[in-house]
Amino acid sequence: ENFSDMFFKALENTALVSQAKEALQLSLKKLAQKLQHYDAGTTASVVYLPYNPTTTIYTAVIGDSPIILGKSSHYWVSPQHNVRSNPLELKAAQERGGFYSGGYIFKGLHGNGLQMSRALGDAELHPVVSSEPEIHTHTVADGDFLLIGTDGLFDPSNENTKGSVGEIVSLIEAGADAHALVQHALDIPTRDNVTAILYRF
């Protein structure tokens, strides 16, 4: 509820709108600091579309709730901060002191584990689980689409997000709206929460 205020205040303190990447970095760092003592945790997937022009957009991801940018000949999928599906993220979490077992990263021999290598909150797993976002800049054009979804949309079986991204893209290209994408996951049925925001340029 507070993130948008944090972001736009950070954006006001930058000289140019083109410094949106810095504003995202600052506001997500502030958010992470506010949540650092919470035992519960969450992902964050953020897209900033400047009001005018919208030819350049900015994405920031912490965790494994993907962003997909679809273009005429290909699509881009945001990094997956998940130790099951991203070997580089698993290695980084292990280098921060974590150990991997059964698809989860742990801080010690006792306590909770997490599939995500990056998250907000999850105080018990600091510093093994990072809160550092990955931020990217993209050029968009008419006909492109942008999808933000929780992992349950892409991974109804709660096993591997990579398996169904192509299927979701095919549904969007066939005309599906956000409601239809959610319903698709519910019909499988999903074993996780499922949310979708779809924007067509």
Give a nutshell description of this structure.
The protein has helices spanning 3-12, 20-35, 87-95, 151-154, 165-173, 178-187, and strands at 41-42, 44-48, 56-62, 67-70, 75-77, 99-101, 104-106, 120-121, 134-139, 145-149, 196-200.
Overview of the structural elements:
- The chain is globular.
- The strands form 4 sheets. It has a 4-stranded antiparallel sheet.
- The two termini are 26 Å apart.
- A hairpin with a 4-residue loop joins strand 4 (67-70) and strand 5 (75-77).
- The mean pLDDT is 90.
- The protein is an alpha+beta fold.
- It has helices spanning 3-12, 20-35, 87-95, 151-154, 165-173, 178-187; strands at 41-42, 44-48, 56-62, 67-70, 75-77, 99-101, 104-106, 120-121, 134-139, 145-149, 196-200.
- The chain contains 6 helices and 11 strands.
| Continuous helix count | 6
Query: Could you give the order of the helices and strands?
Result: HHEEEEEHEEEEEHHHE
Strand tally, please? Answer: 11
N-end to C-end Cα span: 26 Å
Helix content: 25-40%
Strand content: 15-25%
Mean pLDDT: 90
Which secondary-structure class do the elements indicate? Answer: alpha+beta
